[in-house]
Structure formats: C-alpha cells, structure tokens
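User: For this week's homework, look closely at the record that follows, marking any run of repeated tokens, and judge whether sequence predicts the tokens.
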Amino acid sequence: MISNGEKAQDIINSIFDQIGLNANNIFDRDLSTNGLSSDAKSISEYDLMVFLTTAMASDPYEFLYKYREAISDEKYNKVPFFTQEYAVETAYSFLNDDLGIHGAAVNYLYEHGNGRGR
C-alpha cells in the first residue's frame, strides 16, 4: 500500500511506464478469455494491471485479517480457491481505495490509449 505522500497518478505512471504496460492491449483484449483460468499459459497485461493496482490500493494486513476472520467462522467449512480469494481481494481494494489508485490506473489507460480518451 502506498502511504509516503506521493500522488497516486505519479506512482501509477512510473510503474506502468517501467513495465511497459501497453494500454491498447488492454483496450483490445479478448473479453472471452480469462487470464486466471487453469489453462492460462501467461498473464495478460489487463490481469497484471489489476493485480498491481489491487496490491497498491489496499493494505494486505487489513484485508487478510478480515478475510481470515471470515473464513475462520465455524459455519465456513470450505477453503477458497486462489481465484476466489483474489476476486474478493480485488473487490475489497476497489471499495477501500482511499488513495485513488484504481482511478489513476484508468487515467493512465485513457492517456496512453492512442486517442481512446474520455
């Protein structure tokens, strides 16, 4: 989680530029495929972007504390798959994104998407 006072947009721009994220690949992705399926051979740029923004937008200790508390309940007798846990963590980060990380990622896509802006 980012907490050093830097602007979310500056951090997102720096990280996405360093890894060479191509906004057009995200806009043009095949929506019929799921990068997190068991037969996936590699991770798509979209899934990489979501993973990174999720990691930056939420405090992992806070999420894991609440998550473990929920699955430790006596009524809960199943272990979630990684993709289920990841989906919950992603949703949690969107809901608790006080720093505006996800919004900054969307701004990056619009600014770098070959005229596909708002």
